[in-house]
What does this fold into?
Amino acid sequence: MRSQIILTDAAILKAKPAPEGKRYDIWDARLPNFGVRVTDRGRKSFVVMKRLNGVLLRRKIGDYPSLTLASARQLAQAALEEISLGVDPKVRQREKEQEEQRKRDGNFRAVVDAFALQHLSKLRSGGEIKTVIERELIPRWSRRPISDITRREVREAVQTVFDRGAPYAANRLLAFTRKLFNWALERDLIKFSPVAGIKAPGREERRERVLNDEEIRKIWKATGEMSPAFGMMLRFLLLTGQRREEVGLMKWSDFDRGKAIWTIPRERTKGDRAHEVPLTPSALTVLDAMPRLGDLIFTTTGDRPLGSWTKAKAKADKLSGVSEWRIHDLRRTAATNMARAGVPRLVISQVLNHVEGGVTHIYDRASYIEEKRSALSRWADALQMILARQQQP
It folds into this structure.
């Protein structure tokens, strides 16, 4: 027979270590099948032992003294009741831990982090998407299981942005949220997407905004009063007509000073093809104003592209007095002024690295480097004339 005593703290403390390589149990006379196991090193742990379907189970409850005797009795009572009902406490605990882990892995914050690492990091626009989601959605749903988020909550999040007077931003938020939930759906993190069937809250009109000469002068002047990285990058965008994402990742190693050509690698272009941009003396002057902090050109750290463009744009608005324009309008303004200078549409398309359709897209592999250089030179000359008029009464 197993020896039994009424377990007390004093009795447990008095229990001596087992012989080397051995261990023994002290069973509680108050609660059958509950006891303390003592090892040869003097370690003591609470255990229960009971048959389940003819198999003798021994399950650890916890270590003494980190687990008190009173708490151990309560846990042991619950475990023994589970065994009596045909449930193995060890299996139940494992299932509980797995469920808790699934909840941790499936909370909104964790899913967003995985989405950013596994998907957004491979996209040109990944940084923008992550920034919007973290700004608009993380404060709402950070610790919520992503599977609990409803269609109504998604609509409310998007409508909040729309009600701020930002229909374009609201539509982008909806599109980015759809990407996130579709990604989660493909990985069985959710059973359905709450974004399905939600329509964009506002209609977006095709933008035709082109800065006039006075606005160009004001914005150019404002860039000289901003931090060099942001100010010079805005000037470079206007001079070259290239995309902000591509200019923002421009590297000194992409730039051939001798040939005055900037080559954008295929993996960093929207058109999925390498793009050569001839640089005019005005564009080279902008680059000469940038300190070499690392391989990135437009940076304040040397290893990271510029962030906080919302603040930089707001400062440009305040300094220039020009409002209702977007950074992408600099690209449209450059293209429009090239057209005014007599540059053919096809050449402008080559400067902007637009993808041509049909036969042109498939067979025309010419770089148009001289035509592009001529087009950008015409625009640089026209820009100089626009800026010079600022000095006239």
